[in-house]
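ARCHIVE RECORD
Type: protein–small molecule complex
Small molecule: cobalt (II) ion
Source of inputs: curated submission
Record status: active
Notes field left blank by submitter.
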Amino acid sequence: MKTSSENNMRINTIRIKPFKDQKPGTSGLRKTVKQFQVLDYLQSFIQSIFNSLPELRDSTLILGGDGRYFNREAIQIILRMAAANGVGRIILGQAGILSTPAVSHLIKKHQALGGIILSASHNAGGPLGDFGVKFDTASGGPAPESLTDEIFIIASNLREYKIIDINPIPMDKIGQYKLGNMDVEVIDSVKDYAKLMADIFNFEKISALLTSPNFSMCFDAMNAVTGPYAIAILEDQLGAPEGTVIRGQPLPNFGGTHPDPNLVHAKQLVETMYQEENAPDFGAASDGDGDRNMIMGDYFFVTPSDSLAIMTANAHLIPAYSQGIKGVARSMPTSEAVDKVAEKLGLNCFETPTGWKFFSNLLDADEITLCGEESFGTGSNHVNEKDGLWAVLFWLNILAEKQDSVEHIVRQHWAEYGRNYYTRHDYEKLPFKSAEALFNNLDDNIEQLLHKPFNQHTIISADNFTYNDPIDQSVSENQGIRIIFDDSSRIIFRLSGTGTEGATLRVYIEKYVTDLDQFELDTQEALKSLIQTAELIADIKGYTGRTKPTVIT
Ligand code: VG1
Ligand code: CO
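STRUCTURE (tokenized, with ligand):
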């Protein structure tokens, strides 16, 4: 260890052996907590982020996390490293809590150089769970691939990091602190974000709805980061009855469940909404770091792809978007429901690879106003990240304006635009080798699939998706196998980039139907033959031995 002094601050330079596996995936670096606790592992990745930022000195950075196990320790380490690396100021959420969209907003508000978000998002937490680091740039958006590639190369060769010795700062108390020469401001985690929401939506109308005796709602914060935000905004500010927010306290292990808002993991909410009698009119949930959302009605589930389409069709009802919206975008595996709306409204509709970072350029260039992913993510140009509570307020604003039920709004939408039956089948924890072999086989044989008939339908297009970014002309290859049939049904295969154990194969299946009466079916039933075709084309059983998926959403 080397020690030097800078303006009376003792900086230690610690020698390390490079870590070769710090490659960020779809959304940041995600590893098990155990891996992050390996000596100098977190430090290596943080130093690599710092080394990739040429204007770091005297800059402002935003820092916070979703409260998961190891959040507090990681924050103290990052603060000491930031001081040693010459950062001017850190704005830190109280108790280390900030949601991903809140960080994105604060970056813009304070013209920060970027933000560090400590979260593994929807992955499980606790000592045996996962931890993660996301980095957002000055635009408030996730680091683009060019930057994450650079950080990875720096980390692979990193031989030292800098840190100062100092006692932990009291991060639970709002206030201004000095750490060496660096300023640390501990701020209210919720206040700025709540104000942003009030500027976007009609809070008066939403409040009238939430306080009406004819309306009830249940929001499941999944013991993750949105608890304090949802309680402050929905209950305290908008007047929803106490108890509207369930599991509102962030816990280091999320109460032992996956903070993943879907029909499998948001069990309590789903049971509440599927009650035979007295189910709430509106149900919603968000994930670990607050950027995902699930929307439900009384005995009714809204697919995220439909949700994006319906939000686009009704954006004119929301004050912030009432003057009209620019284009829209969806990730490639997201259903084409939003395309139909865009077509009718005369809007551009962009198709991007999976991961929010691919929306950033389009948002920055003002090409799009709304965008979303099938993985329970929706957002707009209000921040450069997907935003769970924003989507919930968007729906509440629509409900308040329309005075109609969730189910009826969705059914009317289908009647007008047609319905995209949609499901995703995940095969988790596969051995890397079998997942790779399955994928390579698909990729190698993709051209031979063309013009082949399956269940009376012919494949009219089959490729491995390449994205050409229209703004910076960057090219991203290998973004998923895409198979399209002559009735515009689609099957898509991807390998997940957020897991920490084995490989996860995602199979996305979609069928577009306009003759609704004939097809009023259960989703899995409606998609049955396509699901079988997908299993056959990829020979899932042959390569993995699996006869059914682990998670269906
Ligand atoms: C998943 C989703 C993707 C999402 C990403 C990050 O990635 O499919 O749509 O952007 O998670 O979301 P993958 O590579 O596992 O399919 V979050 O809320 O985990 O930051
Ligand atoms: Co998330």
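CURATOR ANNOTATION: The chain has 19 helices and 28 strands.
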